[in-house]
């Protein structure tokens, strides 16, 4: 089975590639973080299956599929959307994996794909199913994270979102930071931004997502940047110049 991977987050692409390679069931013919590149690659490479994020800058997964046209590969959406739309995804030529992707769910999706590629069942009307999924997602109520799964050696701990002051990305890893410690997590900053309430969280830098309830003071910094000081009395975070106005507005300044 030939697969192509599309996600605007490099870390997500890398993790999915690793999971797929571990199965030994897939030949990865290409991957990209740019939907525009993906459209041309998919037309040229003709993969059997497309693992595709939904929310991406430049073009959504839906828009990308519209641009690819027919014939289209089978599709597995890799997304942070909740199970609300699960049944709509798992029909016809579309399947669904919730981030962070678990190996057992990936194996299930691959088994379904293998059956379909083997001729078990009709591929279905891709455009009709996409229309149904779009309608479901448009009606869904936001379901924000209350706890985050964190890796601690060979075990998993659950961290309350309310206790997290900010998330930061460094060296291709994401960390949830509390006043006590940092926790390594599997979600990217972009995924977290989708799954946390925008009224309480704001992205202050490409690699930093801030809990505004943790802010104690805001200082003007050089070059039009801002410096945020947190209530713990020791943490200082830089705000990117292009995000300074949004941060001031979010804090009512």
Task: Describe the 3D structure.
The chain has eight helices and 15 strands. The protein has 253 residues and is an alpha/beta fold. The strands form three sheets. It has a seven-stranded antiparallel sheet with strand order 7-6-10-9-8-12-11. A five-stranded parallel sheet has the order 2-1-3-4-5, with helices on both faces. Helix 2 packs parallel to helix 3. It is elongated, with a radius of gyration of 20 Å.
Which secondary structure elements does this structure contain, and how are they paired or packed?
Elements: E1 2-6, H1 10-23, E2 27-32, H2 35-45, E3 49-52, H3 61-68, E4 74-79, H4 86-89, E5 94-98, H5 103-117, H6 126-139, E6 147-152, E7 155-160, E8 164-170, E9 173-178, E10 182-185, H7 189-195, E11 201-205, E12 208-211, E13 215-220, E14 226-230, E15 236-239, H8 244-250
Parallel strand pairs: 1-2, 1-3, 3-4, 4-5
Antiparallel strand pairs: 6-7, 6-10, 8-9, 8-12, 9-10, 11-12, 13-14, 14-15
Helix pairs in contact: 2-3
What is the count of β-strands?
15
Proportion of beta-strand residues:
25-35%
What is the 3D form? elongated
Could you give the order of strands across the largest sheet? 7-6-10-9-8-12-11
| Category from helices, strands and their pairing | alpha/beta
Helix content: 25-40%
Low-confidence stretches: none
Mean of residue pLDDT values: 84
Largest sheet: 7 strands, antiparallel
Q: Give the terminus-to-terminus CA distance.
A: 54 Å
If helices are DSSP runs of H or I spanning 4 or more residues, what is the number of helices? Answer: 8
Radius of gyration from the CA trace? 20 Å
Order of helices and strands: EHEHEHEHEHHEEEEEHEEEEEH
